[in-house]
Amino acid sequence: MAGTISALYKSSNKESRYESNAATREPIWIKWTLVAIALTFFAIFLLLPLVVVLVEALSKGWSVYWETLVDSETLSAVWLTLTAATIAVPLNLIFGVMAAWAIAKFDFRGKYFLITLIDLPFSVSPVVAGLIYVLVFGAQGWFGPWLAEHDIKIIFTTTGIVLATIFVTFPFIARELIPLMQAQGKEEEEAAVVLGAKGWQVFWHITLPNVKWGLIYGVILCNARAMGEFGAVSVVSGHIRGLTNTLPLQVEILYNEYQFAAAFAVASLLALLALVTLGIKTWVEFQASKTMQSVSLEHEV
Amino acid sequence: MSIQVKNISKAFGNFIALDNVSLDFPSGELVALLGPSGCGKTTLLRVIAGMEQADSGDVLLEGEDAATTHVRERQVGFVFQHYALFRHMTVFDNVAFGLRMKPRKQRLPEDKIAKKVHDLLKLVQLDWLADRFPAQLSGGQRQRIALARALAVEPRVLLLDEPFGALDAKVRKELRRWLRKLHDELHITSIFVTHDQEEALEVADRVVLMNHGKVEQVGTPEEVYAHPATPFVYGFLGSVNLFHGRVEGESVRVGDDRLPHEASELAHGAEVTAFARPHELEIIIQSESGVGIPAKVSRIFSFGLVTRVELEGTEGAINQHFEVETTRERVTELALIEGKNVRLVPSRLRVFQNQ
């Protein structure tokens, strides 16, 4: 995932020459066997579930499907999911950019510790992440009594869900930007400073435009995870119907209550979100490679 | 603006990049910092620019201590080896960058900026590339744009870090001449770093030779070439033939052989290292015994006016390698062929006492 955009920058039209050259081409049967295996895997593990979700969602007809979607509990779950993502993604955008900028452009003590820390949410199970919040902010937790005294509720509320989402999606943007920024080095920033630019001017006019596509890519991934997160959110949410259920939690509740058609209907919403995300992601990758290619092509002419 | 550096030292961990360096760069001169890679020349340039902090010592810009002056207030123009052009901006925006980043009060109106940028692009003869992006330019064009960008903010000093290092030989030669011409027009104090002795001797008013973080010699190109102060300088400024021996009256004794040498102030018996440039070695066939170093011709190259003869030492000088520059006529006259045994006699010998 990390470095996909940076890999794109390097891609050129050399592959096609390699592919069309008889001297470097594999026999036809190898080519088609590999393609067939890949397509079979794709169909069974990726395409089939998507189809099943849609078929099951519509198994009891359009009216049931529609009723489930406009149900107040579903709507509140949609609302909560969007709220959590709307808060978590911009915050992680700011944290991620700051962390990546600090790590890639400056040398300081504890840099590697910071990198490890950023990776922590990737290595910790989301359930454990949720439990940490319960242990810290819950009624029996470290700050539980103090929070109760001041009438602040975190666990089993939207706040808790937002916190858990932020934790789980923290690395996405930073991890996307760090290799990209490191590959670009500090020279352009130094040149800008010598030319009289102040710190924020350097950041705004030089650093940020250079990582634009990587940043958008990171935001998309971060958003997809924020909306789809189950484990950590499940622990801190308390499953209060119509109040603290996000879309993935709503799917689970409906499924456990044997309302399969409804569960799949809600799941189809998530699938739709995923497809939209994929679409935007593909578009971003296409734009990034187009910018790079037009530049390199004109250069060759 | 004049630049002085006083007792500058800088270490990166255990590596000493600059060791108590003091130098004077008078106003309006074009000075070359010349030395092998890792000799500290780039570090010195970055210290002057303010991008690197010296461990000790002072940088004086126009006689004023620059220690507390921030990089962006030093009014230096810096040209990077790999250009460091802003890749997402057009050539025009690159050159305009410094002017646009000024505080609102000092900033020129956009039409004045445009005029100035076009003037600068004309100065570097690339006005027609204003709308291109850096990736669409050749290396030589990029470096000229980088120079225009540095000049836009009207720097008091121009610092160039291996400006032609990433270019191919032909473009390098063109740009070198062009830089010299530009400097003659602008007369801005300039320091450029290079590891190419030909470049330094050809372009600079003065050359500073550095090695292992220390200054070895400062002088005009003629001075440093004709009168190298140290064995390092001699060896760095062109090809050399090297002999280890002892002073014996009017000659240097190398093993069993003798090299004629004008009487020097060196004591009899002093251990010395002697140098001769390839054109200062004479090939002779017959010799009175013991004069000259015995050697065998290994290869002969004839390009243009100069013929280069490579030789391997024989007898007492085994495992030594020599290079002689002579004329084609001389080679014919001596009937030199590969494998022929000859003797080498220096017409001029530069002798340094071993430390």
Characterize the structure shown.
- The complex is a heterodimer of chains A (301) and B (355).
- Chain A has helices spanning 4-10, 14-20, 28-57, 61-70, 72-105, 111-123, 126-137, 144-149, 158-169, 171-184, 187-194, 199-210, 212-228, 231-237, 247-256, 260-300.
- Chain A is an all-alpha fold and 301 residues long.
- In chain A, helix 13 (212-228) runs antiparallel to helix 16 (260-300).
- The longest helix of chain A has 41 residues, at 260-300.
- Chain A starts with a helix and ends with a helix.
- In chain A, 35% of the residues are buried.
- Residues 6-14 and 297-301 of chain A have low confidence and may be disordered.
- Chain B is of the alpha+beta class and 355 residues long.
- Helix content of chain B is 26%, strand content 35%.
- In chain B, the strands form 4 sheets. A 6-stranded mixed β-sheet of chain B has the order 6-7-8-3-9-10, with helices on both faces. Chain B has a 5-stranded antiparallel β-sheet with strand order 13-12-11-14-20. Chain B has a 5-stranded antiparallel β-sheet with strand order 15-19-16-17-18.
- The longest helix of chain B has 18 residues, at 169-186.
- Chain B is elongated and about 85 Å long.
- The model of chain B has no long low-confidence stretch (mean pLDDT 88).
- Classes of the chains: A mainly alpha (301), B alpha+beta (355).
- Chain A binds chain B through residues 187-188, 190-198, 201, 205-206, 209-210, 212, 295-296, 298-299, and chain B through 49, 51, 71-73, 76-78, 80, 82, 84-88, 97-98, 101-102, 133, 135-137, 149-150, 152-153.
